[in-house]
Amino acid sequence: MRQLSLGLVLLSLSAVPGAAVAGALFSPDTTNLYIISVNPATGALTQFSTKPAGHWLDVTLDIDSFTIGNLRQSMQVGSEVWISDQFSNAIYRYSAQQEHPRFLGTLSNVMNPRGMGIVNGEVWISSGNIGAGTGIARLDFNGNPLGTFAAQDPFAVLALDAGSVLTSNIQDNRLDRFQSTGTIGSFSGVWSGSSQLDFPMQIGRWNESGQDRVVAVGFSGFDSGLYVYNAATGAFVKRILTIMILPDVTVTNPRGFAPMNSELLWSSSQGIFAMSTSTWSSRVVYTGENFTCGFINSVDFAKYCAGDLNNDSLVDDADFSTFVVAYNDLVCPTLENGYPAGCPADLTGNGFVDDADFLIFVTAYNTLLCP
């Protein structure tokens, strides 16, 4: 058995190259099982050096494609990206690295996970199966359960302010408000103003010419589109029609949303599109045949933190203890079906936890604080 001494961590080493600073907007292509990346500065598919434009991740390289099939959201959680899949009742964790994201493991403690959000340093997940009904599951950044509370058929969750969150209620076609401090999960009432919102999916924030807005994606109904509300009062402001005319189909039903410079990025059952906020016309960013894209979320590759194995924004003794166990095992675990089980200590992504990984870990340990 190989041994590591904590004293070795005090070595002074040169910095190890990390991920580029550039950020991205992520949306899952749930049919082809890709995580698609859009450059928020240009509105074009992200140009990677080691893969096709826009293809940040092919999920099937790590997960059996027969077990997944309804990717809903890919969201940054600390230095990781979590991907929710309703079909497999699981959340898949990856490192937030621009070129070589590493599979870190699977969370299977939330049934029917839909949209996710960061609330007061926790991950809140809208679930179609909480107890005897539906609601919100709360996890820490390492995936440990913190509790649940009931909510009426939520599909997405968004932190509204320091003390409350919004959920998209697809049963009653509205946005509901819950407390996020004090009596966590206490229902504070219907938040959205009068509107024709139908099957609300993702909820997002938008600074519209200095005005703080909440945008709810109205997926279905006669008046589908982006529903804009006053973030302070919940009063309905307007509906923005989402429409894209393709050669074989006219796309109108959005699923995800994110602001992007002078455009609004929106996803649908036929791809990802960018809408001008001056002409309200849309253009194609990513499309094809017979596939669906999900929620859209921003990712900052600079927040990836090598060595932060428990995802608490520190590389400390707790991470070292975890690393030592993996280092002594050397070979990363593999599931019975041949797919990886997730190996966070394999910082080089070569299937082993060896001296090369230790050199990276040493540098991160000496730095202590994550970006």
List the helices and strands and how they pair.
Elements: E1 23-29, E2 34-38, E3 55-58, E4 71-77, E5 80-85, E6 90-95, E7 103-107, E8 111-119, E9 122-130, E10 133-139, E11 145-150, E12 154-161, E13 164-169, E14 174-179, E15 187-190, E16 200-208, E17 211-218, E18 225-230, E19 236-240, E20 244-245, E21 250-251, E22 254-260, E23 263-268, E24 271-276, E25 282-287, E26 297-300, H1 317-329, H2 355-367
Antiparallel strand pairs: 1-2, 1-26, 2-3, 4-5, 5-6, 6-7, 8-9, 9-10, 10-11, 12-13, 13-14, 14-15, 16-17, 17-18, 18-19, 20-21, 22-23, 23-24, 24-25
Helix pairs in contact: 1-2
Task: Report on this structure.
This protein is mostly beta strands and 371 residues long. The protein folds into 2 domains: 6-15 and 314-367, no CATH class; 23-302, Neuraminidase, CATH 2.120.10. It is 7% helix and 42% strand. It has helices at 317-329, 355-367; strands at 23-29, 34-38, 55-58, 71-77, 80-85, 90-95, 103-107, 111-119, 122-130, 133-139, 145-150, 154-161, 164-169, 174-179, 187-190, 200-208, 211-218, 225-230, 236-240, 244-245, 250-251, 254-260, 263-268, 271-276, 282-287, 297-300. It has a 4-stranded antiparallel beta sheet, with no helix packed on it. It is globular. The two termini are 34 Å apart. 44% of the residues are buried. The model is unreliable at 8-21 (pLDDT under 50).
